[in-house]
Design goal:
29% of the residues lie in helices and 29% in strands. The protein contains 10 helices and 18 strands. The chain has helices at residues 17-30, 92-100, 109-115, 118-125, 146-153, 180-188, 233-237, 252-268, 304-311, 316-325, and strands at residues 4-11, 36-44, 47-51, 57-59, 67-69, 72-74, 78-81, 131-133, 136-139, 158-162, 172-174, 194-198, 202-212, 215-218, 222-226, 242-245, 274-282, 288-294. The strands form 4 sheets. Strands 8, 13, 14, 15, 16, 17 and 18 form a 7-stranded mixed sheet that branches. Helix 2 runs antiparallel to helix 3. The longest helix is centred in the C-terminal third of the chain and has 17 residues, at 252-268. The radius of gyration is 20 Å and the shape is globular.
Length: 329
């Protein structure tokens, strides 16, 4: 059987590029060498290149996403996308691959673009049975009246966060009215849209969802206990800042409820590949509150998805094989 040539793309145009490189190293380690010929392709602003085993960098011909190497031209059967943020998670690369007819492991251009926008994602998911959405206000520009608008429409405490992106950079928890202006300035430094959301008191969870052989699969949820006010960038990526329990502490009924919710979210957003949904389980009511969805979740050895896959008894090699093979279904 001919090995399929897979471009493992990594890097990106944001500060999450370093996390992408770490994720890619784990993916490369666990891809099935009997099935796939894997080529590491780094994508940075103005610098797309394939790095061979000797460390030599070969520029990518962007006209057809191929790589001329000496007398040979390497073309690919598919793309394993592990670029967090832009352009791998916001739909830009998906649109490019669609135009040249190259399959990839992540969501299509429309879904990728929409899910990077927290406000639009919440609007689409409203109406899913048993899924609750915290009251929120979407701000499209930094204006003096924003503070009063937020205080008149929402209750404190609240979260102020850049509306696009999933790294928690620029996010603040506001407990007092006098803290709001500074939080808005911080968020608008990261994005030209900001989402302000009422705080939900409860336990935080994250759950992986993926499609394989045409079927949606929901992984065991991870409970996140952070030493910070919330699960911010440091809590996500600095060891020891948060405690992660997989499977998370939920009773059988809660496990079944969130499984049904997660599948509905995946299908309503028309997701593809592996995604991760974050949610709160409200303290007093037991209601599930949607936080956000990440369509290119981290894949380091300690990432939440990796923990959840192992909790099912599967290996990462089996998991990645399923994601790749789904490209051609």
């Amino acid at each position: 059987m001919r090995k399929k040539k897979i471009a493992l793309i990594m890097g990106g145009y944001t500060g999450e590029a370093v996390v992408s490189e770490k994720s890619a190293a784990v993916v490369a380690q666990h891809l099935d060498p009997d099935r796939y010929e894997v080529h590491k392709v780094h994508i940075y602003p103005g610098d797309w290149y394939l790095e061979d085993k000797e460390g030599t960098k070969w520029p990518v011909d962007m006209n057809g996403f191929s790589v001329p190497m000496n007398e040979e031209k390497i073309s690919f059967d598919g793309v394993f996308n592990i670029i967090h943020g832009s352009p791998g998670e916001d739909g830009k690369l998906a649109g490019y691959f669609d135009m040249i007819g190259l399959p990839y492991t992540t969501c299509d251009a429309l879904t990728s673009s929409i899910t990077m926008n927290k406000g639009y994602t919440k609007a689409i998911l409203s109406g899913i049975e048993d899924l609750h959405l915290a009251r929120s206000l979407q701000l499209f520009s930094h204006r003096p009246e924003n503070v009063q608008n937020v205080l008149s429409q929402l209750q404190l405490p609240c979260f102020v966060k850049p509306n696009n992106g999933g790294s928690s950079i620029g996010m603040s928890k506001v407990k007092r009215a006098e803290e709001l202006e500074e939080a808005l300035i911080k968020a608008f430094q990261e994005d030209n849209q900001v989402l302000v959301e009422e705080f939900v008191t409860g336990r935080e969870f994250s759950i992986g969802i993926y499609k394989a052989a045409g079927q949606v699969h929901v992984l065991p949820a991870t409970e996140i206990i952070s030493s910070r006010e919330f699960f911010d960038f440091d809590a996500k990526y600095i060891p020891g800042v948060s405690e992660e329990i997989t499977p998370g502490r939920m009773d059988e009924r809660e496990v079944e409820r969130v499984k049904q919710i997660a599948e509905k979210v995946y299908l309503k957003l028309n997701c593809k590949g592996s995604v991760r949904m974050d949610y709160f389980l409200e303290k007093d009511t037991g209601k599930f509150y949607f936080i956000e969805i990440n369509t290119v979740p981290g894949q380091t050895e300690t990432s939440l998805i990796s923990q959840q896959v192992r909790a099912t008894g599967k290996t990462l090699k089996e998991f990645y094989t399923a994601l790749i093979e789904e490209m051609w279904v």
